[in-house]
Each structure stands twice: as C-alpha cells, then as structure tokens.
Amino acid sequence: MAIERIFVAGAGLMGHGIGQVHAAIGKQVTLYEPELARAEAGKARIAGNLDRAVAKGRLDVAGRDATLGRIAVTDDLAKARDADLVVEAVFEDVDVKRELWRELDELAPEGTIFASNTSSISIDTLAGAVSPGRKARFVGMHFFSPVPVMPLVELVRGHATTSETEAAIRALTDDLGKKLIVSTDRPGFLVNRILMPFLAEAMRTCEEGTGTMEDIDTGARVGLNHPMGPFELADFIGLDVTLNVMQVQYEGLHAEHMKPPKVLVDLVAAGHLGQKTGRGFYTYPREPMADRETKAHRETKA
C-alpha cells in the first residue's frame, strides 16, 4: 500500500525526528501531543534542525520551508482518521502505550498500519490493545536517536504481523534512505539485546574497581572503535530509558548478565538521568574530548 499521510503520536525526542524525516521525503505529517504546546514545541525543534542544516549548506531555504509546510500539529487524536500510517513514539510505559493504541484503533481507518517505536516492549503485548483484525497491520518500527542522523530502522514482527505489512514498512524505510533489519518479538529485539548487556557489564566492571569510567569509555572508543563509550552512551540515551530496557530484558529472559547494575538503579532513583538532567555518570556540559585528553596527558606527565 502507498503510505502518504503519517500521524506521529508523540512529538518528543524521537517523535519530532520521526516526523521530520518523513516530511523531508514528501510525506504529509501530523504531530500529535495531548497538549498543543508540546506538539508545537516538537515542530519548533524540527525547524531548529532544518535551520542548522541550511547554515551548514546541507539544505536550501526552499527545502526547509517545504519540509515544514508538510508538518501539521494537533492535540486532537481524531486527526488519525486520515492516516495511512500511525507511528507511536510516546514514553516507554506499556499501560500508556496500550491505552493510546486502544483509542487510535477506534479512530483510524481499517487499512491504516500501526507502528510502535518501542525499544523494548513486546509488540504482541501492545497489539493486544487493538481489534483482532488490526493485529495483521501492527508492527514495531524502532528508530534510533537522533532520527535524522541514524541510518537504521529495526522492524519487529508480532505473531500476527503479515508479510504485506512488513513490505510496506520496508518500502517506506527505503524511501527514507535508511537500512532495515528485522527482529522477531523477543525482549530487547536485536540491537538492545546486544547493547544492554554491554552497558551493564561496563557498569559492573567499574563498580568492581577494575577501571574508571573514563578508561572504560576510552577502551571502547579506541580499542573497539565505538563512537561513544558505554557510560557516555548511557547518559546520551537517558539512564531512565536504559534502566527500563534492561528491566524488560531481565524480566523477559531471566539472564543474570542482563540484571540492571545497582549504580544505574541508584542514579535513576536520585533523578540523575544523564545529559537531559545535566548529571548522570558524568556531569554536563562536559569539556570537549580533545581538551579532556590533553588535560589527562598533562596530569600523567606531572
């Protein structure tokens, strides 16, 4: 089926980026939040992203204006009645998501595809909130942050997801210029199934006193050629999100190496959630990497 009109439920960190990339390829996008000011803030973030692209010569003013012109904002869930695709990108809370999907199921056309951007929650669990006939068109469509930059989409098939639904999302992902990988509906799917134990083991290694956060991060960046170290990455993702995904995997797979480390649990309990709160494993803003490495070199020589 042709997907031209996209309703994005949630205009926050992930949702505004999802809206931006679809509008950029000519799709008509509606950004929804239950409070209109939050939807407008999401569009303002898109405008800021596009302005920076213009300033860097990656986009012209006409392209910026055309993309913004394809994005509407709303606090009216009934606007989903016009959608070919609904992408849900709200907080990772199963009850919140299920209630939203229940409401959307009553509003959207029968042929509309439902896609959740969840990074960890079972697609079958979410699809349990919709009518039996809708389950065939219910799928996971997991983007990565920042959405306009990261070139990967993880498609997650529920037990009822049809090959036709997968094909429609695959074609859309091709149009977005992103790479698609496909996972079955298992805790953590593919990427987080690999990533979260890595982050947890880095945290336990530090807890045990084997090395400092800085050295572990440097080891990952320099020794493993990762763009960010595990503590830097956890702070970037958000420690609350990281903890939530770890808990889902631990509860679903009962593997000891997936159990959230105490240091992570304690930081989240204290409200230190990473970059978004100004403090996580590190305090923000941080010095540029080159400055930190120069300072460390000087301290070592001294």
Structure description:
The protein has 302 residues and is α/β, with parallel strands linked by helices. It has 2 domains: 5-184, NAD(P)-binding Rossmann-like Domain (Rossmann fold), CATH 3.40.50; 193-287, Orthogonal Bundle (N-(1-d-carboxylethyl)-l-norvaline Dehydrogenase, domain 2), CATH 1.10.1040.10. Helix content is 48%, strand content 13%. The protein has helices at residues 13-24, 36-55, 61-69, 94-107, 123-127, 163-176, 191-207, 213-223, 230-237, 239-253, 262-269, 289-301; strands spanning 5-9, 28-32, 71-74, 85-88, 113-116, 138-143, 152-157, 179-184. Strands 3-2-1-4-5-6-7-8 form an 8-stranded mixed sheet.
**Most strands sheet:** 8 strands, mixed
Q: What proportion of the residues is helical, as a percent range?
A: 40-55%
**Which residue ranges are poorly predicted, with pLDDT under 50 across at least 5 consecutive positions?**
none
Estimate the strand proportion: 5-15%
Overall spatial form: globular
Q: SS-based structural class?
A: alpha/beta
Query: CATH-wise, what's the superfamily of the largest domain?
Result: NAD(P)-binding Rossmann-like Domain
Rg on CA atoms, Å:
20 Å
> Which sequence of strands runs across the widest sheet?
3-2-1-4-5-6-7-8
Q: Look at the structure and give the CATH class of the largest domain.
A: Alpha Beta
> What is the helix tally?
12
